[in-house]
Amino acid sequence: MRRRHFLTLSATTLGGVLVYTLDRKASLLASQQKPLRVPLRFFTEAEALIVAAAASRIFPSDDSGPGAKEAGVAIYIDRQLAGSYGRDRFRYTQPPFEDAPRQFGYQGKETSRQIYREGLKNLKGFQLLSPAEQDSTLQKIESSVFFTLLRQNTIEGMFCDPMHGGNAGMVGWQLVGFPGPRMTNYDDVEKHFGEAFRPQPASLVQVTGKKIRPSEDES
Amino acid sequence: MKTLPAVDAVIIGGGWAGLLMAKELGSRSALSIVVLERGLPRKTSDYADDMDELDYAIRLRMMQDLSQETVTLRHNASQPAVPLRQHGSFLPGAGVGGSGEHWNALCPRFLPDVFELLSRTSEKYGAKSLPEDHAIRDWGVTFDELEPFYTRIDKLLGVSGKAGNIKGTKIPGGNIFEGPRSEEYPTPPTKVSYISQLFRDAADSLGYHPYPTPSANISQAYTNPDGIARGACTYCGFCGRFGCMVGAKAQPTNVLLPVIQKHKNVVIRTGAWVRRILFDSTSSKARGVSYIDANGEEVFQPASLVFLSSWTFNNTRLLLLSGIGEPYDPATGRGTVGSNLTHQVSITAANAFFEKPLNRFMGSGSAGYFMSDFDGDVFDHSSLPFLRGGCLGVRAYGYQPIGSFGVLPRSIKSSWGAEWKKAAVSYYDRTSGVGFTGEHLAYKGNHMDLDPRYKDKLGDPLLRLTLDWRDNERRMTEFASIKAVELARAMDAKEIDAFSGLGSYDSTRYQTTHVQGGTIMGADATRSVVNPYLQHWQLPNLFVLGGSTFPQNASMNPTPTILACTLRSADAIVNRYLKLPGPLA
After folding, report:
1. Could you list the residue range(s) of the whole structural domain that residue B293 is in?
2. Exposure pattern of B461-496 as b/e (b: 16+ CB <10 Å)?
3. Is residue A208 within 8 angstroms of chain B, CB to CB?
4. What are the boundaries of each domain within chain A?
5. Tens of pLDDT along B280-315?
6. Which chain B residues touch A163 with a CB distance below 8 Å?
C-alpha cells in the first residue's frame, strides 16, 4: 500500500465553487479559509506539483482568463491515470510492438501511467524554475509522446465536466462560452445570429439531478 | 460444444441491419429468431445522463473494446501491418443497436449512377478513363429498384428534409441532383442555425444549389407506420458518439427494438461472441453458428437461415474464419471475400475563421446545409484529372470544447502557452470547417484478409486492412478545397485555410465510420460474394447485410442505403424464399 499523497490547492487560486475530493464529498472552496489538501490517487506529491506547474505553462492563467491552475487540471490528470484510461483498459495491447509511421497511431507498449512516470523523472524540480526556464524546458520535450499526452490531458482537464475533477467551477466552460449539457436549445438555435449567446453553464450532475459515475471510478 | 435447440433463423449482430431484419421477419412470419449481439443490452433510458463529452466523445464509451479485438493496417502489400491500438479514423459501435446508437443520423440517398458506376462511367468517358488498378463494379440493383425501399426507410425513421426531385420534377430548395423520389420527406427540415444560414446564402450567391441535410434527428413529433412515436430534436448538440436522451434521433433501440419486443418469436442474446458460421459443403447450406455465450461457454446454435450483420469488418472476418467462399487474392485477382475495401473521403476542405461568434454549442448531429453541385457525375469530368466527387457543406452538430478547442489559423504558430491560449479562446466560437465527403473508388490493391501475426482475445486472427488513397482521391480533395475556399470567402470569413492534402491513409484522423466492402454484392457470382438480394451465392440460406456488400463507396452517408437493401432482402425472403427456399437470383 502506497503512502498517501496530497496536492495542496489554494482556495483563493482555485477558481471554482466545488471540487470533489477522493471520497467524493464536495467541498465548497469559496467558503474555505484554509487551503484544501486533495488526496492523490496516482501521483506522488512531488509528481503532482510538476504536473500542475507544467499544465500551467501549457494553459496559463493570465489576462486572457483562468488556466490550468484554477481548473484543477492536475487533479483531473491524477484521476484519469488512476482509472481505466491510465492502465490502457480499452487499448489493444498484444505484442509484437513495432514502430510504424505516424499515420498508424501510437504503437508503444507503455501505458499513459508509464509515460507520465517516466516523463516526470526528467522534470525533477520543474516547479521551482522561473516561468521562462519552465517554458524552455518544455520546448525541449515538445515533440515527445509524454508532452503530447500532457498537452491533450491539460485541455481535457480544462473543459471536462467537473465530475471528472477538472474544470473546477466550470471556469473552462465560462472561458469559451460553453454552457455544458444544456437539455434544449430548441428556442435559441435560430436566434442570436452574429451575437454571443452565453447561457449560464451547468454541469451534468446539476442538469440531471443524478449521481453519475465517471469512467475513472469504474473498475 | 453444447448444441442448443434449433431455431429458424439466427442473426449475427444487433445493429441497424440485423435488428431491421429481425423486426421484418418477426412481424411478417412465424419464424423463431435469435439475434446474437456480443455487446451489452441498450435502451433509450440509458442515454438520460450520457451528455459527458469526456467519457463518450473522447474516451468513446460506446465503441468497440479494442482490448478484445481490433484490425491491423498497412498501406500496401509490401509493408508489415500493425494493429490499430486505439480508435481513430472510424468508430465501430458496440452493444444492441451497434453504431446506429451513436451515429449523427444523416439520411441521404445515394445518387442513381452510384449503383451502375462501372457501366455509366465507361459509357460516358470510355473504359480508359478508369484508374488502371480500379475494381469498380455495378451493384446489380438500380436506384429505381431501391427507391420504394428508400421511401419506406424514410418513413420508418421519420426523416426530416426537403425533396429536390419528386418523380422527375425538380424542386428548388431541395437537392435537385438527387434521384427521383416518389414522395416528399415525412417531416420538414431541421432548424437553420447561423452557420448553416451563412453557408446556404454563400452557396446561393455563387449559383449553387444548397439544401438542408436530410436528418433522422427529427424536426417535429412523428409517429411511424409501426406506431412508434418520437419527439422533436432539442438541438442539445450531443448526437454523434452519444445516444439520444430524448429519442429524437432514430436509433435501432427506439425505432426497431420496441417492435421486436412485442414479438415472442424473436429473442436477443447479448454477450454472445460469434466465432464461426458452420456449413455443409455437400448440401451447400449454412448449419448455424458457434459462439461464446455470456457465461464464457462455447455453444452451437443450429439454424435454417443465417444472417450475417456484424458490420463491415466482422462480416468479412467471419466468412474468412469460417472458410466460406474463396478469399480474395489481389495478386491473381482470384477469389471474392475481402475484395473492394473502401472507406470514404471525408475532410475539412477549408477552415474558416469569422469575426462574429457562431454559438456553435447549439445544434444537431445532422442539421446543416450541403450542396451536391460537385457530387458524383453532376459536373462534367472530361477536362478534370479525376472521376466522381462529393458533397460540400457545413453541419451545426454542436461543438464541444475538448474536441473543438485549439482549431486555429495556420498563421498562429504556437500550440501551447499564453499566445496559443489567447488565440484559441478568441477563435473557439468563431471557427467552422467547410466539409467535403467524397466517393472512394474500389481498387484491386485495397482489400482485407486475415492477419498472419495478431490475434483477438480468443486467439482468432485479426482482420488485416490493406488500404491507401490513390491519385483520384487526392485530386478530388484538391478540387474540393478550392471550391470550399471560395465558399468560405462568400461566407465572409476573415481568415481561411485550405485542406493541406490527403497524403496517405491516416488512421489517426477521424474520417467517417463508413468503411465498406469485403463481401460485395453483384450480378456476377464469380466477382461478388452475395447476389443483389444479399444472399450468398454458394450458401443460399446465408444472407450478408450491411455496408460490407457495397462494391465501392458513395459520397453520402450509407445507413439509408444499408437499410433499403436490407428491406428489399427481407421482402424477397418473406414473399419468395420462405415459400420456396433456394437462390433468389
Report:
1. 2-577
2. bbbbbbbbbbebbbebbbbbbebbbbbbebbebebb
3. yes
4. 43-217
5. 989 899 999 999 999 999 999 999 999 999 999 999
6. 52
